Amino acid sequence: MPEIARRGLCLVIAAPSGGGKTTIAQAMLGADNTLVRSVSVTTRKPRPGEENGRDYHFIDDARFAAMREGGALLEWAGVFGRQYGTPRAPVEAAIAAGRDVVLAIDVQGHALVRAALPGDVVGLFVLPPSMAELARRLDTRASDSAEQIATRLATARHEIARVVEFDHVLINDDLDAAVRRAQAVLEAARCARSRLSGLGAFVAGLG
Ligand code: ADP
Ligand code: 5GP
Questions:
Q1: Could you tell me if 6 and 195 are in contact, meaning their C-beta atoms sit under 8 angstroms apart?
Q2: Does the residue 87 lie in any domain?
Q3: Which pLDDT does position 152 carry in this prediction?
């Protein structure tokens, strides 16, 4: 397949906790092996089934502070009393190499990454079909206490109010349909002329 050289992009998928951003990001990564997954660092403890280096890099407060102060994080935020951050180097390296990175982070993270990587971010907000369904999905993650779930639901309303900061929005009702829409957003962003650094050369070489 002929390709036009281009700069990579950073697809930031945000949703309230339980909204399905991780599930959608995983499905996209599974279907497209050119996509790069950003693995966040966090000071929270792993949930059952979570793996260090795959789901998160689970680190302690001292290491987190060292990374933050050393400029190794593209963005960071305190969420539910724990620290979360996006390692800078893998994202910048992928974009420079023309590869696309997927981040599943919160709305604060989206705003910070957008500021840190001007022009490189495509923001996709994932809405739940209803607050009742969001509560049900949070409830299926048995490791969270009732109190944690109540906090996450209260926070969700504030996060949803920030949907206006995003380029694209979808409702995560049927999962397959949501994944298809997210893939369509990515495909369209890949065609954005502003990122096609090799367009002139490609056109000149058409013959
Ligand atoms: P987030 O990363 O936004 O916190 P997750 O991707 O972990 O959310 O999804 C929360 C829960 O909801 C998971 O148990 C996931 O399997 C489930 N889930 C996600 N999308 C759907 C969907 N469209 N229909 C039913 N359950 C879903
Ligand atoms: P969880 O503990 O459920 O995995 O994540 C809690 C919240 O932290 C979610 O809203 C999630 O998107 C957010 N989060 C995860 N990684 C990052 C990150 O690297 N940066 C920011 N800002 N938020 C993150």
A1: yes
A2: yes
A3: 87
Q: Is 85 in the pocket of ligand 1 (CB under 6 A)?
A: no
Within a domain: residue 91?
yes
Residue 197 domain flag: no
In total, how many domains does the chain have? Answer: 1
Ligand 1 contact via 17 beta carbon (within 6 Å):
yes
Inform me whether the pLDDT recorded for 142 exceeds 70: no
In a domain, 82, yes or no: yes
Nearest Cα residue to atom 10 of ligand 1: 18
pTM score of the predicted model? 0.92
Question: What mean pLDDT comes out for the span 32-55?
Answer: 95
Atom of ligand 1 nearest to the CA of 17: 4
**In angstroms, what is the span from residue 126 Cα to ligand 1's centroid?**
11
Q: What is the CATH number of the domain that holds 18?
A: 3.40.50.300
Tell which atom from ligand 2 comes closest to the C-alpha of 77.
22
Phi/psi at 137 (5° precision): -70, -35
Which helix (H) or strand (E) segment holds residue 175: the answer is: helix 175-190
CA distance to 17, 40, 42, 63, 120, per residue, from 83 (Å): 15, 10, 5, 11, 24
